[in-house]
Specification:
2 domains; 3 helices; alpha+beta; 184 residues; 6-stranded antiparallel sheet
């Protein structure tokens, strides 16, 4: 989504037509009519949802692998610190390195337990079904046009209504008050 707009209590979004409507249908002017089936705007399509879930799982796994590697390094530093044949300077360096790696382990564990797993749980619980990922519906979109106007730009946009309850409480977005009154 490129831009959010707010009209009174109503939230709107602007994005590319080819993203929201796609290329399967006719390239014709689209205006939402209450009597017709609305064109839903999805926060994530099925593939994007699957990719998101997979990316979170990969991030958890990557941190788990890091923790395993770092734990082995920590054990090596502990052995070095306890070795009577190792000098005081080397023991101090091993202790410093061990402390740095232990901090990395703690940070990775914290990321898994406090950020990644809760995010994965929320995504799998709250966003699993398509209905839960419907952000709103398209209100207006002209056909995609090439070489439009004297600047000869491509016209590819759509305005859509946003169900602000789907955004969560306190969400402010990138709202700018333009001071204009627009109706769709």
């Amino acid at each position: 989504m490129a831009l959010y707009l707010k009209e009174g209590d109503r939230w709107l979004g602007v994005s590319c037509r080819h993203v929201l409507i796609g290329s399967k249908g006719p390239n014709a002017d689209y205006i939402y009519k209450r009597s017709a089936l609305a064109r839903d705007v999805l926060l994530l399509g099925n593939r994007a949802y699957g990719d998101l879930v997979e990316s979170i799982k990969v991030a958890v796994g990557d941190r788990g692998i890091d923790i395993e590697i770092w734990t082995e390094q920590i054990e090596g530093y502990k052995v070095e610190e306890e070795d009577p044949d190792v000098g005081a300077a080397e023991k101090a360096e091993a202790a410093r390195s061990r402390a740095e790696i232990e901090a990395l382990v703690n940070k990775a564990k914290q990321a898994i337990e406090q950020e990644l797993k809760p995010l994965l749980d929320r995504v799998e619980k709250d966003w699993k079904t398509i209905d839960n990922r419907v952000l709103g519906h398209v209100l207006r979109s002209p056909p995609i046009g090439l070489c439009v106007g004297k600047e000869r730009f491509t016209e590819d946009w759509a305005v859509f209504h946003i169900d602000k309850d789907k955004l969560g409480q306190g969400y402010k977005g990138n709202v700018i008050d333009l001071g204009a009154f627009l109706t769709f």
